[in-house]
Amino acid sequence: MSEPDSATLDATVLDELLASVEGDRDFVVELIEAYLADSASHVEAIDAAVAAGDTEALVRPAHTLKSSSATLGASRLAATARELELTARSGSLAGAGEDAAKRVHDEWTTTSEALRAWVAEGGA
After folding, report:
1. Residue ranges of the alpha helices (H) in the chain?
2. Is residue 6, in this structure, part of any structural domain at all?
3. pTM value?
4. Does residue 2 belong to any structural domain of this protein?
5. 91 vs 117: CA distance, rounded Å
6. What is the rounded distance in angstroms from the CA atom of residue 1 to the CA atom of residue 124?
7. Which domain holds residue 30?
8. 32 vs 87: CA distance, rounded Å
């Protein structure tokens, strides 16, 4: 099994999560599947909020994506979503929002692929 890029996905976090549920891989896979479904809608909400220039509508999906990504070891995505959340909380996207949203979108795509590979390859 090939290891995912550790900057994209910290497999040790998934290993710790797996250990915390006493090796119940099916449960971890369910969490990943729920994350993939939910995070896709958060990314869509981020894109829509940035397109509308709506900083208030941007805070929640960026915050949620940050937290849920960190839980599954997607550190780079969590950091990028955090940056976007802080930009939104400042009340002004000032050009930085579109760039940050694109980085979130790109990183989410990479993270999703890494998580799907972890599941398909039997992770842990």
Report:
1. 11-20, 25-52, 55-71, 75-89, 96-120
2. no
3. 0.87
4. no
5. 37
6. 10
7. 11-119
8. 27
Query: What is the CATH number for 18?
Result: 1.20.120
C-alpha closest to that of 10 among 101, 95, 79: 79
Q: What does the pLDDT look like over 19-66, one tens digit per residue?
A: 999 999 999 999 999 999 999 999 999 999 988 989 999 999 999 999
| Region of residue 53 (left: phi > 0; alpha: psi -120 to 50; beta: else) | left
Is residue 4 included in any domain, yes or no?
Answer: no
Residue 57: other Cβ atoms inside 10 A: 16
Q: In the predicted model, what is the mean pLDDT of the chain?
A: 89
In contact, 64 and 42? CB cutoff 8 Å: yes
Asked whether residue 3 is assigned to any structural domain, the reply reads no
Give the span between the Cα atoms of 4 and 79, in whole angstroms. 18
